[in-house]
User: Which sequence fits this backbone?
């Protein structure tokens, strides 16, 4: 086997290994975006307990779009205390304008917070919990499309690289 052929085979294998690593990375990102958030919402609807909390900070920002117009995004920071006295802080992000009562927040705003008793750091404002099981999968369509596209493109790339390697092996 010549040095050129050996280099080509190594390069082809490195391409396949790189494609597999990219797929694993995209898969873990997809898992984090969709599965873990949905799983937390599911657990909160099934086993969550409620406690008094307070929204302590809010923000909103206007994001201009490339073709004119734009959209509003907002976020809030809330705190809550468990019956045993431990305090936790949570954050939420959303699309659209803030509700009018939050736009000029000067003092903490009382809200009910749902949390998991066995993992109190997992929480959300109770009014944000979905009404039914389908509401759990209410992620941004953009996030789902990007993650799905990257996943499919990775599988396509991997299949092309493997097919190319098989063709090279048959030619020898």
Assistant:
């Amino acid at each position: 086997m010549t040095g050129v052929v050996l280099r080509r085979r190594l390069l082809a294998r490195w391409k396949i290994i790189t494609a597999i690593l990219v797929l694993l990375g995209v898969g873990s990102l997809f898992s984090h975006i969709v599965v873990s958030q949905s799983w937390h919402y599911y657990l909160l609807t099934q086993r969550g307990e409620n406690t008094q909390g307070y929204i302590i900070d809010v923000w909103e920002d206007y994001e201009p779009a490339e073709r004119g117009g734009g959209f509003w995004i907002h976020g809030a920071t809330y705190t809550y205390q468990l019956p045993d006295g431990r305090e936790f802080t949570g954050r939420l992000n959303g699309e659209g304008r803030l509700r009018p009562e939050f736009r000029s927040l000067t003092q903490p705003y009382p809200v009910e917070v749902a949390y998991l008793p066995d993992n109190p750091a997992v929480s959300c404002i109770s009014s944000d919990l979905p009404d039914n099981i389908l509401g759990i999968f209410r992620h941004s369509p953009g996030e789902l499309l990007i993650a799905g596209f990257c996943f499919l493109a990775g599988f396509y790339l991997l299949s092309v690289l493997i097919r190319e390697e098989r063709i090279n092996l048959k030619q020898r």
About this structure: The chain has three helices and five strands. The mean pLDDT is 82. Residues 3-47 form the longest helix (45 residues).
